[in-house]
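Practice problem: predict the structure.
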Amino acid sequence: MFDVGKIRKQFPILTSIRTGKPLVYFDNAATTQRPMVVLERLQQFYSQENANIHRGIYQLAYEATQEYELARKKVASFINARVTEEVVFCRGTTEAINMVAQGWGREQLGPNDEVLVTAMEHHSNYVPWAVVCKQTGAKFRVAPVGSDGRLDLSQLKKMINANTRVLAITHISNTLGTINPLPEIIALAHEKQVVVVVDAAQSIAFDQLDVQHLDCDFLGFSGHKAFGPMGIGVLYGKKEYLSRLHPFQQGGSMITKVSQEDIQFKPPPHGLEAGTPPVAEAIALGVALEFITGIGLNQIKEHSQTTLQYARDQLSSIQGVRILGPATDTSNILSFLLDNIHPHDIATILGTAGIAVRAGHHCTQPLMASLGINSTVRASFSIYNNHHEVDHLVSALGTVKKIMS
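Answer:
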């Protein structure tokens, strides 16, 4: 049975006080909190196991290397990669997508090619492709989002043509919570031999990611959105595509030979991981994914959506509230507006009540423009949130209206 109270006890930050009030953390789309098992694993590494990897032949370095590579295996298993070598560690989703855009796109794209993104993309899956199109002369195209916050699949299908080389698409909108039907979309793209790059930042700790089932060519996610540390993320790529990915950075650890005449890189994944990696963070990410598996992604998804629906119902009863995005089949994200009150003012007042929400354009300015707004308030829920906290949010929004009226 899913016991929210038991889960909450594993997150020490949830007992903290902010502005004199108990913390209510509704900013999980930006970053999740960390359970004790992750925090303890980080401490254990730095206090008992710290050594650089893939270099030293002494026992401590060997053990650190083994733990780092074990973490890679845990990630591969979690996303069902065909082989462990398809998992590349990086800093996060942003770096993962930049690695593909610069390491593959800059080499492969030309003036006759097109790159297709959607209007709901986070800037990290929008800007790198716009930049690489300017560098290569490729055409940058944007698939529209309807007023309901969903992609128009018929329009998307029309935009995928013989010149399309890349489709960069988010699994779940970080602003609206829209869940895109990736298997259907990826199948459409592959009919035209289009390379598909998936931003899975919002889905890694919400829904099962099976890269073989999705059949995506590249996929990126961040550890800190999955109860893991900041500064660690993953680029997944099919082996045949990773082998054609030019190293985004060059330096130590990723070469087999360096001379004045020649430089030879290691094959992926190590040839794409220049320098000293975030070893402790990678190991702790493996623990975080085990934590998710222990609870069960199905239970996490069900609880998050139940909390979301309760919040939608409660906020809908507040006069002046406008909820953005699809009314059904969404994730754990609720974006809303309240009367003519600026989202930043709403978030500031909620903050004085100990409630952490996000206000702004959420790094999705093209989406905001398509919706005819500048910003929203975003509440996003996770496994440790409960209905009592939602009730506190509703009460605090009443205070917002009184203060700003």
